[in-house]
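Lab notebook: predicted structure, single chain.

Context: the supervisor wants predicted structures on file for every construct in the current expression panel, including those that have not yet been purified. This is the next one on the list. No modifications to the sequence; it matches the entry in the shared construct table.
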Amino acid sequence: MKSLVNKNIKNSMRLSALLLLSSPLFFLQSCKEQALDVENQDQYTKVFMQSASNGAVPKSLAIKDEWTNIAFGAGYGGFSILSNPVTVNFEIDQEKVDQYNQQNNTNYELPPVESYKISSPSVIIQPGNAGSNNSNLEINPIKLGGTKTYIIPVSISDVQPSLPVKENLRTTFYLVNGVYESNPFTPISIEGWEIHDYSDDDYDGAGGRAKYAIDGTKEMIWLSTYRRVNGWRPPHPHYLTIDMNATHTLHGITLYGRTGANNAYLFPKNVLIQTSNDGNTWTDAGLFSIVASSEDTSATMYFEKSVSCRYYKVTVLSSAGNGDTTSIAELVAF
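Prediction complete. Output recorded below exactly as produced.
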């Protein structure tokens, strides 16, 4: 009895399926595309920069005398497929720099004008496409003049024929800086150099006096005062001021610490470099954090921008051992 009931149910289902498939209404409804009814579709049509979607774009470039290309383009989004080509024009505008700094509490600048350019100010989105061809932001790192980070805002200026631009994707901000893979500069001769001023020093079997920081050897060293008087010795900062007795263009300083694993605690850790033309008024050239190493006691500190000066001042704000004392075996300016 049970199998008979199941058989009747199956026969009934087959009959219903045949009736449905033979109905013209079924075929009409199954083949017809569903229309997407969206009011004011034009408001969703936008042109934009794809590269602007993830915030500022950092670019660290090896400092060489060659042009580096950074590709960018434009995109199109909307319910309608483009039937005609669209030209998107770009610009680099100081006003965008000001807006970025105000919104992000920064003080970036445009790089030197000779260090960057746009290969083509326009790109084209072809009919039926959602993206354009590429243009390039071209940068020559050696013309940046140092390791300073600059900002370059590449922004959509207008679209022809006129289409709305998605404002939060109108501009790509490139944060560009140069990086030295090796030191390309020739050391400045120490002939004629003198110690103009210093915070303190001490006598020691390896010298200890301030003058040994510029004597041309790494064996004789400057050592801040380490002997205690009535239980006290001078803490950080300790400094040396060098008079080069001539004006030079400085790109940075190489500092050599005292050799030997037992002396690693003396190695400068946080260092401020300043420059001057009169020995009285000082301009910061850079604040650097460096790491001690018993194998290589040198630390090369590149300035963000090269500077013309007669005097330079090295101030050790803290040392590797977090104690009161520090030491410098030699200073090399370049």
